[in-house]
Write a structure and sequence with these properties.
Radius of gyration of chain B: 23 Å
Strand order of the largest sheet of chain A: 6-7-8-3-9-10
Oligomer: heterodimer
Structural class of chain A: alpha+beta
CATH superfamily of one domain in chain B: MetI-like
Strand content of chain A: 35-45%
Shape of chain B: globular
Number of domains of chain A: 2
Radius of gyration of chain A: 25 Å
Number of strands of chain B: 0
Largest interface: A-B, 33 and 27 residues
Distance between the termini of chain A: 51 Å
Shape of chain A: elongated
Largest sheet of chain B: none
Chain lengths: 364, 269
């Protein structure tokens, strides 16, 4: 068992491209998924993430490019020849077979003698052993989802693909399944590639997140890195919220660079600056990194003056919209920690630590 | 008034059932009759003669045999071709698909008199002698549409990701078809085959045009016999066919519900 648990290698996509007539669904992506990792492909609908997944599964043929599993080029192999299994969005359980026969389908194809025992083991892993004799339609959506998962992992594939598997579940069940999936992944040690449009889900579950947009990879990294240091405006806005300000650099002094935005002079962590350009850049600050300051407060190096236009109380925090003199509205999330709350119409000062901001190239 | 309102649906339902079943009941009852004269229209006295000697009427069992043979062959051929056509139309996009979908409806929409006479014209023009072969060709032609329509509905209701899931689970295209697709479409194929059999077996108009002078199917025999008084044996065959069809439908329902349940455990979540 231990030998089978060891995944045979990393998944590598090389300039993988897929056209549908004139439409470019996937525009030449290069990606490496280390063996044993929990990897998320995140992007809005239509960004090409599902097409990428289907190419890895062998259900879609790439227009060009290559797919490697370990050292082996599997681009030309068919779906049934790949040690890759998929949990489909619609679960795709066979309605004419029992839960046990569904789970055992792959093993029987592979002519594994003790498929029944192994299938029962997989059903125990997803806590459905007592439902083995039932038909899929007798189970709830969440249970069907777990059967689909058991049916895929029982084959111990090199890579397990999950195509928005939690999309059809309600919020509470989704949270439970997210934890379940993480537990199962760490238990079986198979590479999981999880396709989702839910940024929170991707960040909660995955070790590494690849953000896709319009057929391209925008950025690949650990969730915290993507959040704190987004490389593009798309990532800055797709993962959480960002306040983006145009930035003109005026000088650098060691670790701190200075610049202006709409005539206000600001300081930036110099390590954040892109190496390839000094113009056409934007400063980004997350709403929770901005603070409403008392005028006398001298802590924050960067300050902006504005007027509150909206305040919404959300329990743990209050979210303000603050209008800048140049018309832009910045979002500020202030924890309800006992500090004074502002009301719409109040003039306020916003401040932030230069090290808590990031810099991205202007979009387009 | 209140009672009537509450039970109106049941009453209408029962009346409709009576309306549908009375002819069959009459046929069954009169299969046990010993007619007083040439015609079996009036109850005379109870008799098992017709049941004990079903082939006593000259030529009837030959006609019945021919009709059964034609129906089995026509339904068989139409089911195989029709199932393949239904998969093509239900699964794949190709040039001429919309036109084919429309053309498939034509044999169903064409009046049988028109179809029968034009087929005869065609066979004569091509020099094909009328007989069993022309009957078969005609029957396959008009039952095909019904098979295609029935199977296509079943194929369309099938989630295409099921076949992909089978492929994903190491099944070759042929294995995926026989282990997943075929078992799921089989009820539709079975229904199409039964429909084709029934339509072929009782067809009179198209058959009469294309049978030629000496070939006589069961419906043709009954029609001819009824001019001079149909033998009671016709009622026997009719009764057997009716209860045979009932048995097949009943069997289908039982098997179907057992397959749906899977196990004895009925509990759902």
């Amino acid at each position: 068992m231990a030998a089978r648990l060891k995944a045979s290698g990393d998944l590598r996509l090389v300039r993988l491209t897929r056209h549908f007539d004139d439409f470019v669904a996937v525009a030449g992506i290069d990606l490496e998924v280390p063996s044993g990792s929990f990897f998320a492909l995140l992007g809005p609908s239509g960004c090409g993430k599902t097409t990428t997944l289907r190419m890895v599964a062998g259900l879609e043929e790439p227009t060009s490019g290559q797919i490697f599993l370990g050292t082996e080029d599997i681009t030309a192999t068919r779906a049934y020849q790949r040690k890759v299994n998929t949990v489909f969005q619609s679960y795709a359980l066979f309605p004419h077979l029992s839960v046990l026969d569904n789970v055992g389908f792959g093993l029987r194809q592979l002519k594994v003698a003790d498929w029944k025992a192994k299938s029962m083991e997989a059903l125990e892993l997803v806590k459905l052993a007592d439902r083995a004799r039932q038909r899929p339609r007798q189970l709830s959506g969440g249970m069907q989802q777990r059967v689909a998962l058991a049916r895929a992992i029982v084959n111990r594939p090199d890579v397990l693909l999950l195509d928005e598997p939690l999309g059809a579940l309600d919020l509470k069940l989704r949270r439970e399944m997210q934890i379940e999936l993480k537990r199962i992944q760490s238990e079986v040690g198979i590479t999981f590639i999880h396709v989702t449009h839910d940024q929170e889900e991707a960040m909660t579950m995955a070790d590494t997140v690849a953000v896709m947009n319009a057929g391209h990879l925008e950025q690949v990294g650990a969730p915290a890195d993507l959040y704190d240091h987004p490389a593009t405006t798309f990532v800055a806005n797709f993962l959480g919220q960002s306040n983006l300000l145009p930035l003109e650099l005026t000088g650098a002094d060691g670790a701190v660079a200075t610049g202006t935005s709409h005539g206000v002079s600001l300081t930036v962590d110099a390590t954040q600056l892109p190496t390839d350009r000094s113009a056409g850049i934007q400063l980004g600050i997350r709403p929770e990194k901005l603070r409403l300051l008392a005028d006398a407060d001298g802590r924050a190096a960067n300050r902006l003056q504005g007027t509150v236009t909206d305040a919404s109380f959300t329990g743990v925090a209050t979210t303000y919209l603050v209008a800048m003199p140049w018309g832009q509205e910045l979002t500020v999330t202030q924890p309800n920690d006992g500090s004074d709350r502002a009301r719409p119409g109040d003039p306020v000062t916003l401040g932030w630590d230069p090290h808590q901001a990031f810099v991205v190239p202007e979009a387009g | 008034m209140g009672w009537l309102r509450r039970n109106l649906v049941v009453i209408v339902g029962v009346l409709v059932m009576v309306y549908i079943l009375i002819p069959n009941l009459v046929v069954t009852v009169f299969s046990f009759n010993k007619p007083g004269g040439r015609y079996n229209y009036q109850w005379n006295s109870f008799s098992l003669d017709a049941w004990l000697n079903p082939c006593a009427s000259a030529g009837m069992c030959d006609a019945l045999g021919l009709s059964l043979w034609v129906a089995v062959v026509a339904a068989g051929v139409a089911t195989v071709i029709g199932t393949m056509a239904a998969f093509a139309l239900g699964r794949y996009r190709f040039r001429g698909r919309a036109a084919t979908n429309l053309l498939v409806f034509f044999p169903m929409a064409t009046p049988e008199v028109v179809m029968g006479s034009s087929l005869l014209t065609l066979f004569v023009a091509m020099g094909i002698p009328s007989g069993q072969v022309t009957i078969l060709i005609a029957h396959i032609l008009f039952t095909l549409s019904f098979v295609i329509t029935t199977v296509k509905a079943r194929v369309a209701s099938l989630d295409p990701s099921l076949e992909q899931a089978a492929a994903d689970l190491y099944a070759t295209p042929a294995q995926a078809f026989w282990r997943v697709t075929f078992p799921l479409v089989a009820p539709g194929i079975g229904a199409g085959a039964l429909l084709a059999f029934a339509l072929s077996f009782d067809d009179y108009i198209v058959t009469n045009f294309n049978a030629g002078a000496t070939t006589v199917t069961f419906p043709m025999f009954v029609w001819g016999a009824s001019q001079r008084g149909a033998p009671v044996q016709v009622n026997v065959i009719g009764t057997v066919m009716f209860f045979g069809a009932l048995a097949i439908v009943g069997l289908g329902q039982t098997v179907g519900s057992r397959m749906r349940l899977g196990s004895r455990r009925k509990e759902t979540v």
